[in-house]
Design a protein that fits this description.
This protein is α/β, with parallel strands linked by helices. Helices cover 50% and strands 20% of the residues. The chain has an eight-stranded mixed β-barrel with strand order 12-13-15-16-17-18-19-20, surrounded by four helices. A six-stranded mixed beta sheet has the order 6-8-9-7-10-11, sandwiched between helices. A hairpin with a 2-residue loop joins strand 8 and strand 9. Helix 15 runs parallel beside helix 17. The radius of gyration is 34 Å and the shape is elongated. Bound molecules: ligand C2E and calcium ion (CA) (2 copies). One calcium ion (CA) binds next to loops.
Length: 574
């Protein structure tokens, strides 16, 4: 393992010392002879608050009781009963007492060496004939230990015992200077939705998870000549000599933790790796890159690892640009709601049954941007809330208008993000949107993706239940991409399963996909749910789906998503 560098955060230390310097420190004098106790008390009492103990047992009582408040212990080595050596040993072996410096009082030269070996900070020879020397030595020892303790406190993350981020970065720099030729990997490790684990299991278990993962990562780092730190609540960094398979190594390490809870969460951990990180780049920047890679797969449940490459930086800049332009886009009417019809196919001729509202952005400089690009970005930064509200309002207004103008009711479904559902007052908001537009709950459907259910199930189920009690119908979007079990499905408050496009693609040539659709149909009929197939592009697909009993289809075969005026024409044609 690498040697710990010897730098001290003087700035932090001085700030701290300035505040505590005014306090009178407390010293414990342990000596069996009363005359010695008295003399030392006399010398010390002008500068310090002095406690005394006449034997080892009494000393231990005071030490364990006053541990935080003692700045120093003066300890006589030879006492009847528990002697000074035993007291010293106990202090050095107890982690929470280790911080207190001990100065040994002795008249025996050979004992000095032994007590220093046992961890005494210094010794004062008897008799006590030079009070100024004694005072100076004591002061120096206390200052030194306080400084060391502060450095230690600022160097480690108290929960996991790993380095903290600042120290880690300094350390990484020292490693760079030391091993100039070595290629180094910067690694970021994060736990997906850790806050939910905290909510489900409570803080104590949450902390335990963080500690155990931290320990595993530290172990891996040490085995590979690297270092690890905790950079924020549920995130860790590692700086390692380049390895070919860091990802498998790390995930194996975490899987090997013997703990029931960890067993269930190792697949929640995501890794961002910047292999052979560029040394010309600032060390903080290099970890930003690892983090960028790590966050690029946030919310993508199929991927655990991502490797940094320079296109990610471009993507980051692009994301920032879109975020900066959203408000202006909204106020200038650059966002448009398109509609894609859904057809009921279990009748002789398919007929228009409803539509899905899908947002489009006509950007003045970037042109048409697909929601596939900006939705994930806005979901990541929370801006989706505002955008979704715009879509809901606009779609509701449009349905209301068509109803009034043509006397035709076209139910429209809107997409709802997970964070929308977590918002308090969500149900009230939906209700007031419907009221304002003059539409009924039967005319306004919500699409919630399957992964939202499997993530925060309790909260989401509660909200969705409220919505259904208003008379609304809920579609489970992208069904087949999340992890709902059959058991879970039967207890979820939903009305419609919306099969993910992946199942439909290639259904003509792929027996397995067709079987999957049939299976879903069985489940749906058992649970009394309607099924929508989306992404239907060909006549063959449509025919096959009709045969399997799928109720509704949506896709390019019938119509692409279209602007409101075209949707109006489709509606009028029926
Ligand atoms: P989604 O909810 O799964 O929407 C279906 C997507 O499939 C739409 O992509 C639609 O245009 C596309 N699609 C429909 N038929 C076909 C087909 O036959 N073939 C193919 N290849 N694609 C088809 P779009 O409009 O690009 O939207 C992408 C995703 O963005 C949506 O996936 C949805 O998750 C999200 N999104 C769109 N509008 C909104 C919105 O207003 N709010 C939120 N939160 N998300 C939205
Ligand atoms: Ca959808
Ligand atoms: Ca979908």
């Amino acid at each position: 393992m690498f040697v710990t560098p010897n730098f001290v955060r003087i700035d932090i230390m001085n700030e701290f010392l300035k505040d505590v310097i005014k306090l009178k420190r407390r010293i414990l004098v342990v000596d069996d002879e009363e005359i010695n106790r008295r003399m030392l008390s006399k010398i010390l009492s002008s500068e310090y608050e002095v406690l005394t103990a006449e034997n080892g047992d009494r000393a231990i009582e005071i030490i364990t009781g006053e541990r935080e408040l003692l700045s120093l212990i003066l300890l006589d080595l030879y006492m009847p009963g528990k002697d000074g050596y035993e007291v010293l040993k106990l202090i050095r072996e107890t982690p929470r007492l280790k911080k207190i410096p001990v100065i040994v009082l002795t008249s025996d030269g050979s004992a000095e060496v032994q007590s220093l070996k046992l961890g005494a900070a210094d010794f004062i020879p008897k008799p006590y004939d030079l009070p100024d020397v004694i005072l100076a030595r004591i002061e120096k020892t206390i200052q030194l230990y306080e400084a060391i303790n502060i450095v230690k406190a600022t160097q480690f993350d108290p929960l996991t015992g790993l380095y903290n981020k600042e120290y880690f970065m300094e350390y990484a720099l020292v490693m760079d200077q030391f091993y100039r030729e070595r290629e180094m990997d910067a690694v970021a490790v994060n736990i997906n939705r850790f806050h939910i684990l905290n909510e489900i299991h409570g803080r104590i278990i949450g902390d335990r998870i963080l500690r155990m993962i931290g320990r595993a990562l530290k172990e891996y780092a040490e085995e590979h000549d690297g270092i690890a730190c905790r950079y924020d609540a549920d995130g860790y960094f590692l700086y390692l000599p380049h390895g070919e398979d860091v990802y498998s190594g790390l995930s194996e390490k975490i899987k090997s933790i013997e703990d029931g809870i960890i067993k269930n969460i190792h697949n929640r951990i995501r890794y961002g790796i910047y292999p052979r990180s560029d040394r010309k780049c600032d060390i903080h920047r290099r970890f930003d890159c690892a983090l960028l890679a790590c966050n690029s797969i946030k919310g993508d449940y199929k991927r655990e690892v991502s490797y940094y490459d320079s296109s990610m930086l471009e993507f980051e800049a692009y994301s920032e640009r879109l975020a900066a332009d959203m408000d202006q886009g909204l106020s200038e009417g650059r966002f448009k709601v398109y509609y894609q019809p859904k057809y009921f196919i279990q009748s002789e001729e398919p007929y228009l049954s409803s539509a899905e509202a899908l947002i489009r952005w006509d950007h003045p400089e970037l042109g048409m941007i697909s929601p596939g690009q900006f939705i994930p970005i806005f979901e990541g930064n929370g801006m989706i809330r505002k955008l979704d509200r715009f879509v809901w309002r606009e779609a509701a207004r449009q349905i209301g208008e068509w109803k009034r103008l043509h006397g035709k009711s076209l139910p429209v479904s809107v997409n709802v993000s997970r964070i929308d559902l977590m918002e308090t007052g969500f149900t009230d908001e939906i209700r007031s949107i419907m009221d304002e537009a003059g539409i009924t709950p039967e005319e306004f459907l919500l699409e919630v993706t399957e992964s939202a259910y499997t993530e925060d199930s309790d909260r989401i189920i509660e909200v969705v239940k409220n919505l259904r009690s208003l008379g609304m119908r809920i579609e489970m979007d992208d069904f087949g991409t999340g992890y709902s079990s059959l058991n879970m499905l039967s207890s979820l408050p939903i009305d419609v399963l919306k099969l993910d496009m992946g199942f439909i693609r290639n259904i003509e040539n792929n027996e397995k996909n067709l079987k999957m659709v049939e299976l879903v149909m069985n489940i749906a009929s058992y649970l009394n749910l309607k099924v929508v197939a989306e992404g239907v592009e060909t006549k063959e697909q449509y025919k096959l789906l009709k045969k399997t009993g799928v109720h509704l289809v949506q896709g390019y075969y019938f119509s692409r998503p279209v602007p409101a005026d075209e949707m109006e024409k489709i509606l009028l044609k029926g």
